[in-house]
Amino acid sequence: MGILDRVAIAGIGNTEFSRDSGRSETQLAAECIKSALDDAGLAPADVDGMVTFTIDNTEDVDLIRNLGIPGLRYASRIPHGGAGSGGSVVHAAGAIAAGLADVVVVWRAMNERSEYRFGSANAAKPAPGGGAVNMQWAVPWGAATPACWQSMVSHRYMTEFGVTNRDLAEIAVLHRKHSLNNPNAFGYQKELTVEDHQNSRWIIEPVLRLLDCCQESDGGQAFVVTSLERARDLRQKPARITAGAQWVPYPTDAITNFYFEDFTEMATTQGMARQLYEQSGIGPADIQVAMLYDHFSPILLQHLEAFGFCAKGEAMDFIRDGNCALDGALPTNTHGGLMSEAYIHGLNSLAEAVRQIRGTAINQIEGVEHAAFSSGMTGLILGKD
């Protein structure tokens, strides 16, 4: 096993997920961190490390002041936007394994619905470390949003393997089914049919309709990361970090970009998944549940193939055959995913992986020993202690 196998996620916490939080992002960050510490049975005074995204607007110095954290021995930020969400926990786990900190808090907090919109065109140069820096060259030609970027890649895949937008409706409907009994989800008690999907307006024709897109959410999500030994003495069952990896190959830019040699493959996820399997000594058949980044429905197809859950070009049939359903061979995004729960840059999906390992998920899958999480460039395999 790799060195991260001696590290665990000991606490998870979140605010409500909404369209208008009514409070600052700093307050959202403080609330979700306090919730995660309470979940673990720890206090702010126990924290000596903090990790977040380069694009998070809250400074750690504000949080240690507001939470009453005495001081930090370790602090870092992960780049690549949502593609780096798994990397935030990898950074934290690496700090624990290296002895640089004892208790590291990971957070992401944002008012992405009420203050700014994920789906809005932004002609300005992206923030450093936010990913998609080179995409600015495509903005003058109309590719000004993540939906545009994903559509360029997915259209090639869909053309190559005969996938239609009507097929993608099955992904949206599946995720909504998983969210129907999740009170934290946008899709709570809101049924969705294929017809609803097909009647939603086009965002990028002929690839993405409105219901192929993730939520735009206000909210916060946090994690407490510590040694497996210490986690065993805390309040919750540890979610052991069996493996954690990042892969940022050349040439690349963001989780979806125009620089891959083959648009039908996710080179970033393939390289990351390969490392996860090498570190852990397990393979796709040893994973019982998967939380895969689904900011747009078609990317799920390439995630499944990059992890080796099915062969290239077979992901749509894999889903259609029921494998990703709650009673399937690989239940996927069991909380509703980013499409039907919320979009907190992927970290809310990692929280669901922790719940599945603990045995406390609303849609709990029996016999979970390993849960995979992918945000594209970064990911983890969690396991039971």
Dominant shape: globular
CATH superfamily membership: Thiolase/Chalcone synthase
Question: In terms of quaternary structure, what is this?
Answer: single chain
Number of domains: 1
Q: Ends: how far apart? A: 13 Å
Report the count of strand segments.
11
CATH architecture: 3-Layer(aba) Sandwich
- How big a fraction of the residues is strand? 15-25%
List the helices and strands and how they pair.
Elements lengths: L6 E8 L10 H16 L8 E5 L6 H8 L6 E5 L6 H13 L5 E9 L34 H16 L3 H15 L14 H6 L2 E3 L3 E2 L8 E10 H4 L7 E8 L20 H14 L8 E4 L6 H8 L8 H6 L16 H4 L6 H12 L11 E5 L3 E6 L2
Parallel strand pairs: 2-3, 2-4, 9-10
Antiparallel strand pairs: 1-7, 1-8, 4-7, 5-6, 8-11, 10-11
Describe the structure.
With 385 residues, this protein is an alpha/beta fold. The chain has a single domain, classed as Peroxisomal Thiolase, Chain A, domain 1. It has helices at residues 25-40, 60-67, 85-97, 146-161, 165-179, 194-199, 228-231, 267-280, 299-306, 315-320, 337-340, 347-358, and strands at residues 7-14, 49-53, 74-78, 103-111, 202-204, 208-209, 218-227, 239-246, 289-292, 370-374, 378-383. The strands form two sheets. A nine-stranded mixed beta sheet has the order 3-2-4-7-1-8-11-10-9, with helices on both faces. It is globular. The two termini are 13 Å apart.
